[in-house]
Write a structure and sequence with these properties.
The structure holds two protein chains of two kinds. By secondary structure, chain A is mostly beta strands. Chain A has one helix and five strands. The longest helix of chain B has 19 residues. Classes of the chains: A mainly beta, B alpha/beta.
């Protein structure tokens, strides 16, 4: 399945958002995820099924003004 | 002490966390400023979670309250989704809402701002909208559910200080019961003192401290200026006058001729 993760194209075997995070070696409680511009809560990542062409954003705390 | 949305804060200075020369200097500047609230952003995590973790643990060690922002968002949808993501990560309903309308001036898109504010207020957020000094927009934001407003005094990062004192005075005068925090455009401690003397409740700044030659010293200076301005506001300042008035009593003056 082809996905766009943080603006970069990825070809992955993962079928859920949680599997995608694991496959790409993301970990930690300080990550926030959105699929196709909508928030996917942490607790829903395991059930959230991805579709070909989905746009995924994985964000974390950064310096800000 | 400063009462903000039911929270008692020891300082009327809110500080941004961006652009410091190093994490250690950021931490020292936060401590020197006396601030109890810092702004933080969310950005794409490219290091598997480790970059965010490092920064997050540094902030956690400072014992300050977090005001996440939606910096860089140019649409209502972007801002709303970013706010929701921030709420999940930072476990706070506070959000500094930015919807940018112009790339050059970083002026808020006030139409999108009001729309996003309404959506987020209905969803239970405590929205801190980064807005202009326009009074009608301020009233629309209050109607949308905002309980605090954050007008600019000049463009973000410009260090110009208050460029429209009349508008700031007017906003303060028309909205006496609303917490007003001047956000953006402050360059010097005297600018902060000036807006605090007008009766603004607090200031939020970042670049003026982070890009100073000595950010820790400047953070301390801003902390003092904010306190001084607030105390002056509450102490009844003299109105300027065109004539000299002797400060030493005339009565009892010696006569030598």
């Amino acid at each position: 399945m082809k996905l766009l993760v943080n603006g970069e194209a990825h070809e992955v075997a993962a079928t859920t958002l949680a599997e995608l995070l694991a496959a790409l070696d993301y970990e930690g409680d300080w990550l926030a995820t959105a699929v196709n511009s909508d928030l996917v809560h942490r607790v829903n990542r395991a059930e959230f099924r991805l579709s070909d062409g989905d746009r995924i954003e994985i964000l974390s705390p950064m310096q800000g003004g | 002490m400063f009462e903000l949305l039911g929270t008692t804060l020891p300082s009327r200075l809110l500080l941004g966390t961006a652009q410091y020369p190093s994490p250690a200097i950021l931490a020292d500047a936060v401590k020197a400023s006396g601030t109890a609230v810092v702004t933080i952003s969310l950005r794409r995590e490219m290091a598997g979670g480790r970059a965010g973790e490092k920064f997050w643990s540094l902030i956690g060690s400072l014992g300050v309250r977090i005001l996440p922002n939606t910096a860089g968002c140019h649409s209502v949808k972007e801002a709303v989704t970013t706010a929701k993501m921030a709420r999940e990560v930072f476990d706070t309903s506070w959000i500094k809402l930015e919807v940018i309308g112009n790339h050059d001036t970083l002026q808020p898109d006030v139409f999108g701002l009001v729309e996003a504010a309404r959506i987020l207020c209905e969803d239970g957020f405590a929205v801190f909208p980064y807005t202009t000094d326009d009074l009608v927009v301020a009233e629309r934001l209050l109607e949308a559910g905002c309980k605090v407003l954050m007008p600019w005094c000049a463009p973000i990062g410009s260090a110009l200080g208050p460029v429209n004192m009349t508008a700031l005075r007017s906003m303060r005068g028309h909205l006496p019961g609303v917490p007003l925090i001047v956000d953006a455009g402050l360059g010097r401690p005297s600018h902060a003192a000036t807006v605090m003397e007008l009766g603004f409740d607090a200031v939020l700044l970042n670049t003026a401290v982070a890009r100073a030659a000595d950010p820790v010293g400047m953070a301390r200076a801003f902390g003092k200026a904010v306190e001084a301005g607030r105390e002056a506001f509450g102490s009844g300042m003299l109105e300027p006058r065109e004539v000299a008035v002797p400060s030493t009593p005339i009565f009892g003056r010696a006569v030598f001729s």
